[in-house]
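Below is how a single chain appears once it has passed through the pipeline. First comes the sequence as given, then the structure the pipeline wrote out for it. We keep one example in the README because the format questions we get most often are answered faster by looking than by reading.
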Amino acid sequence: MGSSMSSKSMDEEDRMRRQNLEDELKKMQNSLKVTATSHYLSSRYYKNLDVKLQYASIITGALGTTGGVLSKLAWKLIVAKNPRFAPILATASATSLLFTVVVNIPHVPNSPGTLHQLHFRSGIECQYLEKQVQFFAKSDVWNSDMPWTTLASRYENLLKEKKEINGRVQTDEWAYRAALKKIENRENEKRQKEQELQTKTLRGQIG
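Resulting structure:
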């Protein structure tokens, strides 16, 4: 009797641990979904900014080159007629060329092009990890053949992987808020469609 009660107590304890694990995995899955969406929003923002800077570099590069050529060909004439204009032209030319060079240097830390790639990769990694968490919660948490020590170890590994991904590039606060709003709107639209479908089905049954 005592052995039987002990077994039942162990079963209940194991059930509670698995329930808590499932709840934590759902929280992790939701967090990863929001984080992935925020990374994609940031990636799109920095990509658009990078494109704008590339266009600006083309224009300033052309102006800088033109200014440089003009200053070389007609330097004496410019100095004679407009002594103050010559150094301004030379400075603008040098600044334009420098801006063009800096914008087009690959893999510059914190440049829009680099941030676009970092956020995009992090978005993919978060999305992939989210699918792993979802599969783990559905397939193994309530598998009685899977011992608790194995479940706990896998959960710890998922936490470490999530921490590593989040450590590569921080989410932008504005993007995170926008991601929360986007997912909330998506869920509301989904619930509204389900309610409309239920209403139509009910009316069809009554009719």
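The chain has one domain: 2-174.

See the next section for the split statistics.
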